[in-house]
Design brief:
Layout: H1 3-17, H2 33-40, H3 44-58, E1 65-69, E2 81-83, E3 90-94, H4 101-119, H5 127-140, H6 144-149, E4 152-154, E5 162-164, H7 170-183, H8 188-192, H9 197-204
Parallel strand pairs: 1-3
Antiparallel strand pairs: 2-3, 4-5
Helix pairs in contact: 1-5, 1-7, 2-4, 3-4, 4-5, 5-7
């Protein structure tokens, strides 16, 4: 996916969904310090609590169950999965991510967007394209801050080595985020609230040509 296809998919979403959440003050799901403290605990009840808040923000029902799972192994950029079969939706996150608050936030943003898109009958036929589209759609529906904060998975505690979490490159996530902010006339102050210093730097160093 490139910038032109990002623009095309954003236009498609706007046609299908309109301006999601008309009030710009209600658009973002804000990943506050309290949210991240809850995700950092490693407790599945806390994980479910944040999932429920995201679901309410998006208007998703029924709310998916979520749990850490010892048994699932995935490619590094994937990190989670959601089972959408009725009547129970279930998000599974590898146990490796317990306590990794920013990464778990990014995983939840992606998986909850799957639930949102399914609820609205929006699905691309190609599986890989649909995963990239889901990251893009997460930004469109106000979960972009969770994605931006969770982009880099640390291999060591000093972030000297790591990998990108998700299906879109950091450049395209930032591009998409800036396009959505411009589309909704959201101020820079509002767009950078509750972002990590790393995510804020990504935004400030990126220019849309």
């Amino acid at each position: 996916m490139n910038k032109e296809s990002v623009d095309e998919k954003l236009k498609m979403l706007s046609l299908k969904l309109g301006i999601f959440k008309q009030n710009p003050d209600e658009f973002y799901f804000e990943p506050t310090e309290e949210i991240y403290e809850t995700l950092e605990s490693g407790d599945e009840n806390d994980l479910q609590r944040v999932t429920t808040e995201i679901a309410k923000h998006l208007g998703i029902a029924p709310i998916p169950d979520v749990r850490y799972d010892w048994g699932i192994k995935m490619e590094p950029e994937v990190a989670g999965q959601i089972k959408l079969a009725s009547p129970i939706r279930c998000i599974q996150i590898p146990f490796f991510y317990v306590g990794k608050k920013y990464e778990v936030g990014g995983i939840l943003a992606h998986e909850m967007t799957h639930a949102f898109l399914t609820s609205n009958g929006i699905l691309l036929e190609d599986p890989n394209e649909n995963e990239m589209f889901t990251d893009l759609a997460a930004v469109f529906i106000g979960l972009g801050k969770l994605l931006l904060n969770g982009l880099l998975v640390a291999i060591d505690e000093h972030l000297s080595e790591g990998h990108v979490l998700g299906y879109l490159s950091p450049e395209l996530i930032v591009y998409c985020y800036k396009r959505v902010n411009a589309y909704r006339s959201i101020s820079e102050e509002a767009a950078t609230k509750n972002l990590t210093p790393e995510a804020t730097n990504r935004l400030s160093n990126f220019r849309i040509n």
